[in-house]
Amino acid sequence: MSNFEQTASASEFDHVGITDTSPPADRWVPGIGKRGLWLLSWLAPVVLIIVWEIAAKAGWVSPQVLPAPSKVLNTAIKLATTGTLLHDLRVSLLRAAAGFVLGGSIGFTLGVLVGFSRIAEAAIDRSIQMIRAIPFLALLPLVIVWLGVGEAQKIFLVALGVTFPIYINTTLGIRQVDPKLIELGRVQGIGPFELIRRIVLPGALPSILTGVRYALATAWLALVVAETIGAESGIGFLAMDAREFLRTDVIVLTIAIYALIGVAADVIARFLEGRLLAWHPNYGGSR
Predict the structure, then answer these.
(1) Which of 48, 226, 231, 252 is the most exposed place for a label (fewest CB within 10 A)?
(2) For residue 282, what pLDDT is reported?
(3) 140: buried, middle or exposed (CB in 10 Å: 19+, 13-18, 0-12)?
(4) pLDDT in tens, 205-242
(5) Residue 29: its pLDDT value, please?
(6) Confidence grade of residue 18 (pLDDT, cut at 50, 70, 90)
């Protein structure tokens, strides 16, 4: 073990000795385990669906306004059986994934540049913040003129929405790394690239992963906007087509799909936090 690792280990040991590093869930809600917390997180959605079903079956809510969950489920089964739902879902997932990879790569690269360099911040940060303030709908006509209404337009809008959360959180994470740790690494003779790999990026990782979680939600928001214009497939197209025929069951189904995809994306992000931040008591220790 190097001198730096010994020093860091000793520092962590001293910190444990004076601070309670047990997972927050164990400190704040004693007597409720992880499984109990997981069940509690699903309580409100389940109760809402039950109340919704009862209200629809009792005739308190018109089927044309809001169909019962059982009706929406039957519609999902029919569309899945014909292959329509699975095809549209696959198309939307591919668009979101392509835009996320493109926008995430750009946002992370720019965030690293600005996080490490005040010159880069002065050169590009103000322009990025100005573009970030422009709503998707305001950009949509110009994007259509540039790229048409094909796949490029949809992937571009997703990438644009994903870039900013990752950029901001990457920059913030790098700037918030404890300067004492960086100075300690320099004292121990660690080179610049090794310093970034072993101290700066791990220290910035919680903020970066928070940006990833925001970016996953933004990706679907951008995709919904993109798929409402000139799309011939995708979940957004399915919703717009259902609107033309007043199929509220299909519209509600697409909304439920977006919600479930959002939950799945959040689960993936939490899994990454638990694996990549296993050393952090508030992440790896509490998952």
Answers:
(1) 48
(2) 67
(3) middle
(4) 889 989 998 998 889 888 888 888 777 888 888 988 88
(5) 53
(6) very low
Q: What's residue 77's pLDDT?
A: 93
Do the Cβ atoms of 214 and 198 come closer than 8 Å?
no
- Residues 91/236, Cβ–Cβ less than 8 Å: no
Residue type for 179, please?
Answer: P
User: Domains of the chain, with CATH numbers?
Assistant: 69-276 (1.10.3720.10)
What DSSP letter does each residue of the chain carry, written as one string? --HHHHHHHHHHHHHHHHS--S-HHHHHSTT--HHHHHHHHTHHHHHHHHHHHHHHHTTSS-TTTS--HHHHHHHHHHHHHHTHHHHHHHHHHHHHHHHHHHHHHHHHHHHHHHHH-HHHIIIIIHHHHHHHTS-HHHHHHHHHHHHTTSHHHHHHHHHHHHHHHHHHHHHHHHHTS-HHHHHHHHHTT--HHHHIIIIIHHHHHHHHHHHHHHHHHHHHHHHHHHHTSS-SSSHHHHHHHHHHTT-HHHHHHHHHHHHHHHHHHHHHHHHHHHHHTTTSTTTGGG-
Q: What pLDDT band is residue 5 in, cutting at 50, 70 and 90?
A: very low
Residues recorded for the chain:
287
Q: What angle do CA 161, 162, 168 make, to 5 degrees?
A: 105
